[in-house]
Specification:
The complex is a heterotrimer of chains A (291), B (296) and C (256). Chain A has 291 residues and is mainly α. Helix content of chain A is 75%, strand content 0%. Chain A is built from 13 helices and no strands. Chain B is mainly α and 296 residues long. Chain B has a domain at 13-121 and 129-221. Chain B is built from eleven helices and two strands, in the order H-H-H-H-E-E-H-H-H-H-H-H-H. Chain B has helices at residues 2-32, 39-55, 61-84, 93-116, 142-164, 166-176, 178-183, 188-214, 221-236, 241-262, 268-282; strands at residues 132-135, 138-141. In chain B, strand 1 and strand 2 (138-141) form a beta hairpin. Chain B is globular and about 60 Å long. Chain C has 256 residues and is α/β, with parallel strands linked by helices. Helices cover 38% and strands 24% of the residues of chain C. Chain C is built from ten helices and ten strands. In chain C, the strands form two sheets. A six-stranded mixed β-sheet of chain C has the order 6-7-8-3-9-10, with helices on both faces. A four-stranded antiparallel β-sheet of chain C has the order 2-1-4-5, covered by helices on one side. The chains are: A mainly alpha (291), B mainly alpha (296), C alpha/beta (256). Chains A and B meet through helix 4, helix 9 and helix 11 of A and helix 4, helix 9 and helix 11 of B.
Chain lengths: 291, 296, 256
């Protein structure tokens, strides 16, 4: 049995790692989505965190955990600075501002020497282990799960439903938006840092526009309203190529097509994502009453 | 000095293609308040279809161009029917429309990949006979002139159409206030479908011209222009057709000039996106735009 | 004793003067009506009072504290609650959840203790649930507690808005057309509710077009037309006031 597990891990270890990282990234976006903000900047925050952590390890020879924290903090700082002016924008415009920001970050990474240019930062010690990824993921998931019914969690959900009404109930909209944005950025930065130490390197291509769209897809497919939704979405989409390969589908176009089709079917027929299949049997409300 | 003039000319050419692409984008946003992110995929497919018509079916470019453009329009109808119509009743239709357009974009790109392969291809030699002119130290090719003429012509026709014809007026009414349009007897669903047709046809035309201009077509060619198109319509103002045209030209010029001034092409996009970012912060409605951009 | 003092409030939108030097006072524990034809500026005034928008000029004082340039969430923290003319419920939440969500200012629900799973962190939840149910019962929606807000009837939604506004125990309640579209019986129940709230010491400012409702409930009424105050007075005075009648006849607006 153990031998089979070891074999499984040898073959699929990489996918398992990526599922973990993607799930963490998806959760980081979920924090922002939970506040009603459509941000496409989390891939860039992951990049900031990844590069920062990589630089801290390579050039400053700091221990892994310190580098990770440094990366997350750096990403959070950038998120804070970006968030303040940008959060006034509505819907699509916020998306585009964060997208533009993401592109600027990516181009900066391509052009700066300290980030290694287009080839990226190489030679980063690959100290990230699977258990570390899943520990971080577990922590983030736990945080999201507890957040839901806490005061900030209620505030976020209210804001998302109707911002004006929420404000008139005493909810400080700007504060929560900035907080959600920054926390999401830190989470993404953490994921980025772990990613950088996973495969020896991090390149600008790893966190461009299409990664940002991927994060959005994980959330939509999995569902944004419960903590396990983004994890579900990330796991499914990341594992999809392997699953398809298992049934004999190896062609790139078909895999891409299946991705698109899943997204289309979800948004048309299951707008609250796959997780809503489980929450059909909710009484999350009943859990609160207890009277 | 000549170099500058040359860059200006180049910028104008690429700018007119950007403008044509952006016009389609902004048309849908103006009418439906939805960002159709599948626009770039239609751009790509249309270019590839035109190529196929010329290469495999042996048609002349003069025939392939309108046919592929028509095909692009039909893709737009399909897009509307599959991805947007089912969502119109929803409260969050702006957001879900965005998502379903992403889904369709992925599907379209997958189709392009499957039909044409991943390698980039080009129009066969002799598709367009090219003459080169030297005017005041600036080099212009007949291809560039042709592209500008076609793009300008299409944009002018569209502007005329929107402003002067009855259907155009109906489109403007729906863009202004959908419910009022319905009360006035406008066939809103028909107008929306029509808007998608036109928008995608224009985007498709832009794709063919782009492929001709850069002498290269690939299933992922829509990717670079997708972001640029967004930047252009923000710059020009979402929902404004003249804004899209001007924005496209401005963008093309700024791109070319950035390369010329900095000597490399690396910073080209960075400048564009920084400008875009600044505009969103300072004047999100863009140069000529309409529509709410801040929270209520 | 004056709870609310509105002092020369003006508000313009571009070229449109929505409110011009509006002044009146509301006594604590009373029900004060705000009436006027459509477009008179009533909702704009409520938006100013609740901090959603700011006035172009003028002041508002609530219990002596300036209210007029304070953002909405701080106004709410001062004990001011409101409902919305075009109903702004949280549609994807149940009735109970809408009320629970409204308790932001009064419920601790602390995050850190919950992350540490300290039992004290959850102690409050049960109490909040009980309180919320009581409020729902008060507006007659306890049977619909676990129904989604978007599935309620129009009248039920209005009542849920009131319930949510009551959730954080406000002292001043701004009601924007609370019985619009309601049948007589339902409106009468809301009238009873409003009366009992005032009886408990709550101050209520009420916009309504339903004249019977307003006349029977309010101890004083302010009439607006074209953004200006025509008059403020007791129902009998207002009813017979020449300018008021003209304002309404002129616009063709009428009571229920």
């Amino acid at each position: 049995m153990l031998e089979q597990l070891a074999q499984f891990y040898a073959v699929y270890g990489s996918v398992i790692n990526f599922i973990g990282i993607n799930a963490l990234l998806a959760l980081s976006l979920n924090v922002t989505l939970a506040a009603g903000m459509l941000s496409l900047g989390n891939a860039a925050f992951a990049g900031v965190g990844g590069y920062a952590a990589g630089i801290l390890t390579l050039h400053f020879k700091l221990p892994y955990v310190v580098s990770l924290c440094g990366g997350a903090l750096m990403a959070g700082l950038v998120g804070l600075v970006l968030g303040l002016p940008v959060l006034r924008l509505r819907g699509v415009f916020l998306a585009m501002a964060t997208l533009a920001f993401g592109e600027v970050v990516r181009i900066a990474a391509v052009n700066l020497d300290v980030t290694g240019g287009a080839e990226g930062l190489t030679g980063i010690p690959n100290v990230t282990k699977t258990w570390m990824i899943y520990l971080a993921l577990g922590g983030a998931a736990y945080f999201m799960a507890v957040l839901r019914r806490s005061r900030p969690g209620w505030a976020l959900v209210s804001m998302r439903e109707d911002e004006t009404a929420a404000a008139c109930l005493g909810i400080h909209i700007t504060y929560y938006k900035v907080a959600a944005f920054t926390i999401g950025a830190m989470m993404a930065g953490l994921a980025g840092g772990m990613y950088a130490h996973l495969n020896y390197l991090i390149t600008p291509r790893d966190f461009g526009f299409f990664i940002a769209v991927d994060l959005l897809i994980y959330n939509i497919v999995g569902g944004t309203r419960v903590w396990y939704g983004p994890i579900l979405g990330a796991a499914l989409i990341t594992a999809l190529p392997e699953i398809l390969r298992g049934v004999g589908v190896t062609a790139g176009p078909i895999r891409m097509g299946v991705n698109g089709l899943i997204l289309l079917l979800v948004i048309l027929f299951l707008p609250n994502g796959l997780a809503s299949i489980f929450t059909r049997f909710r009484p999350a409300a009943a859990k609160v009453e207890t009277a | 000095m000549n170099l500058l003039a040359q860059q200006l000319v180049n910028g104008l050419f690429i700018g007119s293609v950007y403008g044509l692409f952006a016009v389609g984008y902004t048309l849908v946003f103006g009418v439906l308040d939805i960002l159709n992110l599948a626009h770039a995929a239609v751009f790509t497919l249309s270019g590839l279809i035109a190529l196929w018509l010329v290469q495999a079916a042996g048609l002349s470019i003069w025939l392939a161009f309108p046919l592929a453009t028509l095909f692009a329009g039909l893709l737009g109808l399909l897009l509307n029917q599959v991805a947007f119509v089912p969502l119109r009743k929803r409260a969050d239709s702006q957001f879900s429309g965005l998502i379903s357009s992403i889904a369709m974009a992925i599907i379209f790109e997958a189709v392009a990949l499957g039909l044409f392969g991943a390698r980039s291809v080009r129009f066969p030699q002799g598709t367009v006979s090219v003459h080169i002119w030297h005017v005041g130290g600036v080099t212009i090719t007949s291809l560039q002139v042709g592209i500008v003429l076609v793009a300008t012509l299409l944009m002018l026709v569209l502007t005329f159409f929107i402003q002067r014809t009855r259907t155009g007026k109906a489109v403007r009414t729906v863009a202004e206030n959908e419910r009022a349009a319905m009360l006035l007897g406008v066939n809103v669903n028909g107008i929306i479908a029509f808007t998608f047709f036109i928008s995608s046809a224009l985007g498709g035309a832009a794709g063919i011209l782009y492929g001709l201009y850069f002498d290269s077509l690939a299933p992922d060619m829509g990717r670079s222009i997708e972001l640029k198109g967004l930047a252009v319509i923000i710059l020009g103002g979402m929902g404004s057709i003249p804004g899209a045209i001007l924005g496209g030209l401005a963008f093309g010029l700024s791109e070319v000039l950035t390369v010329a001034i900095s000597g490399t092409s690396n910073l080209r996009d960075a400048v564009a996106f920084t400008v875009l970012f600044a505009i969103l912060l300072i004047r999100p409605s863009g140069l000529l735009g309409r529509g709410k951009t801040r929270e209520a | 004793m004056n709870d609310l003092r509105v002092n020369n409030i003006s508000r313009s939108f571009g070229g449109l003067q929505a409110l011009l030097e509006v002044s009146f006072e509301v006594t604590r524990g009373t029900i004060h009506g705000l009436i006027g034809p459509n477009g008179a500026g009533k909702t704009t005034l409520i938006n100013i009072l609740s901090g959603v928008i700011s006035p172009t000029s003028g002041e508002v004082f609530y219990r002596g504290q300036a209210l007029h340039r304070i953002p909405a969430h701080r106004v709410a923290a001062m004990g001011v609650a409101r409902t919305f003319q075009n109903i702004r419920l949280f549609p994807a939440m149940t009735c109970l959840e809408n009320v629970l969500a409204g308790q932001h200012l009064t419920a601790a629900r602390p995050l850190l203790p919950r992350l540490l799973q300290l039992p004290s962190a959850y102690r409050e939840d049960r109490e909040l649930g009980v309180q919320s149910r009581k409020i729902l019962t008060r507006v007659g929606l306890d049977a619909k507690a676990s129904h989604l807000a978007r599935n309620l009837s129009y009248g039920e939604r209005r009542r849920l808005e009131i319930a949510r506004a009551l959730s954080f125990s406000p002292r001043l309640l701004l009601l924007d057309e609370p019985v619009a579209g309601m049948r007589r019986a339902e409106a009468a129940e809301v009238a009873d509710l409003v009366r009992s709230l005032a009886g408990e010491g709550m101050t209520i400012l009420l916009i309504e077009h339903n004249m019977a409702f307003v006349m029977s409930l309010c101890s004083r009424i302010t009439v607006l037309n074209f953004g200006r105050v025509i008059t403020t007075g007791r129902p009998e005075e207002v009813r017979g006031h020449r300018d008021v009648i003209e304002a309404y006849l002129g616009s063709g607006d009428n009571d229920a």
